[in-house]
Amino acid sequence: MRRQRSSTAVSLTGKPPVVRFAGLIKPHQAFPLVARIDRAVNRRTNAVHLGPAADHRWWLLSRSADRSLLWAGIGVVLAATGVRGRRAAGRGYASLLVASAVSNVFGKGLFGGDRPSLETTPFPRHRGRQPKSPSFPSGHSSSAAAFAIGAALEWPAAGAVIAPLAGAVMYSRLHTGAHWFSDVAGGAAIGAGVALAGRALVPPPAAPTAAIPSGPRYDVPALPGGAGLFVIINPHSGSGRPFREDPIETISKALPQARIHVLHKDDDVSAIYASAIDRGLKAIGICGGDGTVAAAAATARQHNLPLAVFPGGTFNHFAKSAGLATMERAITAIESGSGIAADVADLAMTVDGNRTTSTVLNTFAIGIYPQLVELREKREKRLGKALATVWAAGRLLRTAQPVRIRVNGEDGNYFSLFVGVNRYYPQNLAPIDRPRLDDEVLDVRTATAAPSHSRLRTFLELSVGDHGRRVTGRIPWVRRRLTVVGDTTALVDLEFDGDAGSTVTLAHDGETVELPARGSRAELRITAHALRVYAPVQE
Known about the structure:
CATH architecture of the largest domain: Orthogonal Bundle
Helix content: 40-55%
Radius of gyration: 29 Å
Number of strands: 17
Number of domains: 3
Low-confidence stretches: 1-19
CATH topology of the largest domain: Vanadium-containing Chloroperoxidase, domain 2
Number of helices: 18
Shape: elongated
Structural class: alpha+beta
Largest sheet: 11 strands, antiparallel
């Protein structure tokens, strides 16, 4: 292949470096907007004067990432921490190898271009000649992003520690004059894309499924063919799920003797059940979202009947916790008469002396938690739940307004208050899994709006993950500054003391309630083994 000389990049001797092949498209030369941005960033970077000692450190950092030696060393350290560290190191380094190949073999060959001129770069920042390879994309940036994101997909806490170092390596390529800004941005995009594509092709190991049974076994009547069962089906629930089976057709075919009511827009679930209950009814069933399931559970408790839950909603949090991830499992449990006893929470809300009660099956929350879960679920397929949680928290905490609440007699300002029925994991502000339905406790997580940097501290506590929080929580001076606190209790008593005329939003099982922010009360109490549910008791 014929050699060609760079037109702009020069060495310390004044001679341009010989580039064997400078690429085909050359973004810096081909696109005027890219060139303007590159030159503007280059001028700003060169104008930053940190001193010779700092300049030398940035050069050393850049050199340490040559041939990915820095990431190889970090991978060794990660691997020494245990199984999770080995998985993080393996995925990080595999992502790095692929990203490096894509950047150096295909990226530089297709794009390429000349590197910045060292004549405008302050002398203490560079040593020797410019590299002879084409400029776009930055291989160092590609490797850094791929390793950091790859490791984070397996171990978010490790990723949170590695990410700033990866960012520093990327900046060092600008500081030392080795690359244009577009080179660094392009390399980072390639590295991130390769790591996320790797996750899609080779997903991390699945989290352990809920224990079977997820609660103590409890006698429920076997209903062959669905005899003695009355089922309400919400045909609109779960419409966002791909490849969703028709619940009406599935249940009618599998349980031909069951009585079925298809829910209409203005129907009252409790009233429909009340009109259907007679001496021959042995159980009630529900196919819908978690809010509808909670309403059915209240009726089942009121009439002392077992509840059959079909996973017909979008997320089916309660059904999954009970081991009912598929219609087939629910139908098998109903016909065989296998069941468990599940804990519930009784929620009492008082406004102007009027008291209302309801049954909570999954979670109760105030503040950013409901929005955090909603945003997380939109991105978790691409990023994984842990990184999606960090992304969602970063967006919400910037503008979150604290709510003033007296919790069990203690006043406080809270960005978020979460209460789970039974223990949830991980033990941070945005838990994901609930292995059991019989822990007999309420799992309480609060994020306090403390006077100093509480938004940033809350975000960092979420970012380091469950393992990172447990480690930092053992350090006394760090523990005193944590904003996210977890505890278990049997009762949560809330009194609201906000501005007169304003409201506070309570969310439970996918439903929301608006209460006056001043003078209202809410009480949540665990009731053990209060609900009989058809559920698998063995595989």
